[in-house]
Automatic annotation (TrEMBL):
Source species taxonomy: Bacteria, Bacillati, Actinomycetota, Coriobacteriia, Eggerthellales
SUPFAM superfamilies: C-terminal effector domain of the bipartite response regulators
Keyword Membrane among UniProt keywords: no
Organism name: Eggerthella guodeyinii
Domain of life, per lineage: Bacteria
Alphabetical list of CDD domains matching this protein: LuxR_C_like
Protein name: LuxR family transcriptional regulator
Molecular function terms from GO: DNA binding
Alphabetized SMART domains for the sequence: HTH_LUXR
PROSITE patterns linked to this entry: HTH_LUXR_2
Pfam families per record: GerE
InterPro entries cross-referenced by the UniProt entry: Sig_transdc_resp-reg_C-effctor, Tscrpt_reg_LuxR_C, WH-like_DNA-bd_sf
UniProt keyword terms in alphabetical order: DNA-binding, Transcription, Transcription regulation
Keyword Cell division among UniProt keywords: no
């Protein structure tokens, strides 16, 4: 085949045939958050007497190390992506798994061995996940924006699934499952990277999406403060309520919060032409404010509702952050490692600061110096100020410039102008003949012509004014009718007909 490239074989072709809407293997990104939820937030492990590991000193060490690891990763990634260091694809998952085992086992040890396990637990669980997240975002930065906007929210389904299923196991089985989660994420990352390299996953046309000019440093700083403040204020909130909440109820609140955030994300992904970050932030503002309001009631039911709402906020802001900094990297030409290191530093620094401030806040309330209602009122005021910092004019929010004109028939008027119009019309006519040979409808033919030109899914959505879900469905039907699995195969097929 003229101009053909390496095509998916074996396990890659099987996987491609099973993932028509988006690459299922990329849901491995959510396993990192599943690991974090199961290890720290859910009481699974016997040495901790029914308490979540988040109450252990190893969590505090890990929480302190993680923002530092993000800063180091960002600095390393200023000039080159972290993905260029191939050894990290093994180091990240292994470090996380070893740290997990040490975090669970160190209470059973004693003396210098216990101290060593404590340090390894903090370093492993603090550095390993950062490496995995940055490697995943390097992959997302190379992947078509439409796919990323679907995969990132959908990957939290894997997190939700693990949060529901893993608590049914205890003892050694639970330890084994949680330890395997980062290893599974690393394996799926390598499979996804291979699929992207082979063309089974559509790549982003960076030149087509890049916006003129450079991003303002002030906007990055404002986004950093927004993320830091949301996580910090959210993690501070539980200290305001004096109601006792059982570990099981807390786990249920976590699951309910994830369900709410996923439902919101699914609606936006399926029925919008592109992700509108500013609008998404407005949507998560409502559950944040309601979480603060119900906390002031001081009852166990109110505390559970507040934690469910706040978990929805945390899931939502994580989705916003990942998509924001990936798009920022795509549109400015800077590395995704650099931007995501900044974003993750803001998130984890906010978590650390919120938990460190909890004892002081609880002391204020218990001493009567500040009532829960007044404290919650102060939190609402602080969050209101934070919402004013959300960047509203940024290259990330910019729409694709100069969208092509459309004609009334199935052929878009982007095939050529001036002296090259006749030659382009001939090419277009031959490509239309190819489309008719495979029985494509008028709309499918229109999309086929754009794909044959190398256009990305976001470009097609914005040109034809269609939702992400509609374009994905049409492309899946085109691939099925033509018996192909990637855009590169489609381009090769179109070139054969010219």
């Amino acid at each position: 085949m003229a101009g053909s490239t390496a095509q998916p074989r074996g396990i890659d072709r099987i996987a491609a045939s099973l993932e028509p809407a988006f690459p299922l293997r990329m849901l491995g990104f959510g396993l990192i958050y599943a690991w974090s939820t199961c290890l720290w937030d859910i009481p699974l492990f016997l040495p901790f007497d029914g308490a979540a590991l988040q109450t252990d000193a190893s969590w505090m060490l890990s929480a302190a190390i993680t923002p530092l690891a993000c800063i180091v990763g960002s600095l390393i990634g200023r000039s080159r992506e972290l993905a260029t260091f191939r050894s990290l694809y093994v180091v990240g998952p292994l470090l996380t798994a070893i740290g997990t085992l040490c975090a669970i086992a160190h209470p059973l040890l004693s003396g210098s061995v216990q101290a060593a396990a404590y340090v390894v637990a903090g370093v492993g669980t603090g550095v390993g996940p950062v490496i995995l997240i940055l490697l995943w975002t390097c992959l997302f930065a190379r992947t078509e924006t439409g796919v990323v906007e679907t995969v990132v929210p959908a990957s939290f389904v894997a997190t939700l699934f693990c949060a529901i299923v893993v608590p049914s196991f205890q003892g050694g089985v639970a330890v084994g499952i949680v330890t395997l989660l980062p290893l599974a994420s690393g394996a799926l990352l390598l499979l996804s990277k291979r699929a992207l390299d082979l063309g089974a996953i559509p790549r982003e046309n960076v030149g087509e999406r890049r916006a003129p000019g450079t991003v303002k440093a002030g906007n990055i700083a404002r986004m950093f403060l927004v993320i830091f403040a949301v996580y910090g204020l959210g993690c501070l909130l539980p200290s305001v309520s004096l109601a006792d909440v059982s570990a099981r109820a807390d786990t249920g609140a976590t699951i309910l919060g994830m369900l709410f955030a996923l439902a919101l994300a699914a609606g936006i992904v399926l029925f919008s032409r592109h992700i509108n970050f500013e609008a998404l932030f407005r949507w998560i503002s409502a559950p944040f404010v309601f979480a603060v309001i119900v906390t002031a009631l001081g009852t166990p039911a109110a505390a559970i509702a507040a934690r469910a709402l706040m978990n929805a906020v945390f899931t939502g802001i994580e989705i916003i952050m990942v998509l924001y900094f990936i798009r920022l990297a795509q549109k400015t030409g800077r590395t995704s490692t650099f931007f995501m290191g900044i974003g993750e530093c803001a998130a984890y620094a906010g978590v650390f600061a919120g938990y460190v401030a909890q004892p002081a806040a609880r002391s204020l309330i218990e001493s009567g110096a500040c009532s829960p209602a007044v404290f919650c009122l102060l939190l609402v005021g602080a969050f209101t100020i934070v919402t004013l910092l959300v960047p509203r004019r940024d290259v990330v929010w910019a729409e694709p410039s100069d969208p092509p004109e459309r004609t009334g028939d199935a052929t878009p008027a982007v095939l050529g102008r001036g002296s090259e119009a006749d030659a382009d019309d001939v090419i277009a006519a031959r490509r239309i003949a190819v489309a008719r040979r495979y029985g494509l409808s008028n709309r499918e033919t229109e999309i086929f012509l754009m794909l044959a030109q190398g256009r990305s899914r976001p470009y097609i959505r914005d040109t034809l004014i269609l939702s992400k879900n509609t374009v994905a469905t049409h492309i899946r039907h085109i691939y099925e009718k033509m018996g192909i699995h990637s855009q590169q195969e489609l381009i090769d097929l179109a070139q054969e007909g010219e």
